[in-house]
Amino acid sequence: MPVLCHSRAGTDAADRDAGGRRGHGHCHRNPALTARILILGIGNPGRGDDGLGPAAAAAIARMALPSVTTSDPYQLAIEDAADIAEHDVIWFVDATMSGIDPYTVDEIHPATEIGFTSHVLSPHAVLGIARDYFSRTHRAFLLAIRGYNFAFSEALTPQAAENLADALAMLTRRLRDTGTEP
Questions:
Q1: Is domain 28-177 given the CATH code 3.40.800.10 in the classification?
Q2: Are strands 37-41 and 89-96 parallel, antiparallel or unpaired?
Q3: Which end of the chain has the smaller Cβ count within 10 Å, N or C?
Q4: 86 and 137 in contact (C-beta within 8 Å)?
């Protein structure tokens, strides 16, 4: 029996691509696991290592873990707050041009003031929107995976691919535990 995961417009709202939103992974609910986890893999796969976030989301989606939903937007949008409001633990996964190899993990909190333009919305801001408009607060983490080449390319650099593998190993452990505690 299908589980309704994304109540959006479409012929089959339990379908992976319901309502035209791309990137949602399969949604399975396990009553024993109460935390509903959302992985947002942010980035542009056409810009080399900027595709680390979507690559991580795709790898997690293939695992079909219970209570885990994935999405891979190029950038965050106000509408992502609605998806966030439906989950308990949020993992933002993105590439970073600088930072510690292979990745860093930071627990993040909603912005106290929400400021954005039509092209930039931070994880903190979208959490703030979820809090302010859906009355939901979440446990949220930013997983920043070190990338090296952000030029036009659809391939990850070998070193970024290694960093992705290390980050996925950590994230998979956390998701199987409860989705938290990096």
A1: no
A2: parallel
A3: N
A4: no
